[in-house]
Amino acid sequence: MRVYLAGANKEQLNTLDKKIYVLESFAYMQKHKESINLLLNNNFLLDSGAFTFIGKKNKDLINWEEYTNSYVDFINTHNIDLFFELDVYSVIGNDKTEALRNKIEQKTGKQSIPVWHIFLGIDYWKKLCEEYKYIAIGASGKNDSKWTRTNPEQLKALVLYAKSKGVKVHGLGYKFFK
Fold it and tell me: Residue 149: which domain range?
């Protein structure tokens, strides 16, 4: 198991004597461009930053096509291999989210990491396991967080199913508690 550190700052990364696994948000990196090379020198996973806008009043004002184009440009400019789709199912719906994912993959020539949520259903999970080598389970937000905490056996079954298909799974937004 690999644990990706989210939100590590430049000073923290400079104190480490070895490479670590780092997850950072595209939305954050746009504001802190001086940390890009330092972050990319580690085992890096790029989050789209789309979650930043979910639940905010201005989420309907976001031009998702333009945001996607900027995201793709960033991925291509920095040759990023591991990156999530724009996880905006709850904002724009499944079809439009899939269209953005397809656009990202066509323009980068790489598979993104799709994010599965319980509301997408088990059949969708199985479909993703057939099509992708790396997928994520969303655990942020009121409904996803509750489902993942209260259904550990079903969650385990999802992960084991993915493993049987040779698919890596990332728990996106998980918090570990005793």
Answer: 113-178
If one counts every other C-beta atom within 10 angstroms of the C-beta of residue 106, the result is: 10
pLDDT in tens, 131-153: 999 999 987 666 666 787 788 89
For 75-130, what is each residue's pLDDT tens digit?
A: 998 889 999 999 999 889 999 999 999 999 999 999 999 999 999 999 999 999 99
In a domain, 104, yes or no: no
Q: Where are the alpha helices (DSSP H) in 41-132?
A: 64-77, 89-92, 94-108, 122-131
- Secondary structure letter of residue 83 according to DSSP: B
Query: Both 34 and 5 in a single domain?
Result: yes
Specify whether 83 is located in the same domain as 160.
no
